[in-house]
């Protein structure tokens, strides 16, 4: 399997896991054309509480591990679940609580990326 297909499978699986746990405001940032970016893809989403942020990040890890046999290279933020970062090297996931996401506003930092917004499922 080539890298593009692998990255797309990983991205799709992460989005599916976020949606399963009712994550909101899902955005996919394609950083592949941006020089010196830390990853090829960022996925950002919002949870409404520490519990939900924790559930979203846990579900992402479980689904990716079970379905794609991959684990994050690095995980940060699980102590307080205000902002959990899951680093799968080519894809980095940011799971925020709403206020924390608004405060850091990392969407602005990567404003020149190609951005795909995923509609919330009802």
UniProtKB/TrEMBL annotation:
<protein>
    <recommendedName>
        <fullName>Ribosomal silencing factor RsfS</fullName>
    </recommendedName>
</protein>
<comment type="subunit">
    <text>Interacts with ribosomal protein uL14 (rplN).</text>
</comment>
<keyword id="KW-0678">Repressor</keyword>
<keyword id="KW-0963">Cytoplasm</keyword>
<comment type="similarity">
    <text>Belongs to the Iojap/RsfS family.</text>
</comment>
<dbReference type="InterPro" id="IPR043519">
    <property type="entry name" value="NT_sf"/>
</dbReference>
<dbReference type="InterPro" id="IPR004394">
    <property type="entry name" value="Iojap/RsfS/C7orf30"/>
</dbReference>
<dbReference type="Pfam" id="PF02410">
    <property type="entry name" value="RsfS"/>
</dbReference>
<comment type="function">
    <text>Functions as a ribosomal silencing factor. Interacts with ribosomal protein uL14 (rplN), blocking formation of intersubunit bridge B8. Prevents association of the 30S and 50S ribosomal subunits and the formation of functional ribosomes, thus repressing translation.</text>
</comment>
<keyword id="KW-0810">Translation regulation</keyword>
């Amino acid at each position: 399997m080539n890298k593009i297909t692998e990255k797309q499978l990983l991205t799709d699986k992460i989005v599916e896991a976020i949606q399963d746990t009712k994550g909101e405001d899902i955005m996919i940032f394609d950083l592949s054309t941006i020089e010196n970016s830390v990853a090829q893809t960022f996925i950002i989403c919002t949870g409404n509480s520490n519990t939900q942020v924790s559930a979203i990040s846990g579900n992402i890890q479980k689904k990716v591990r079970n379905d794609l046999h991959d684990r994050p290279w690095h995980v940060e933020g699980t102590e307080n679940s205000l902002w959990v970062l899951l680093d799968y090297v080519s894809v980095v996931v940011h799971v925020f609580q709403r206020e924390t996401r608004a405060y850091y506003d990392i969407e602005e930092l990567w404003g020149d990326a190609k951005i795909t917004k995923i509609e919330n499922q009802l």
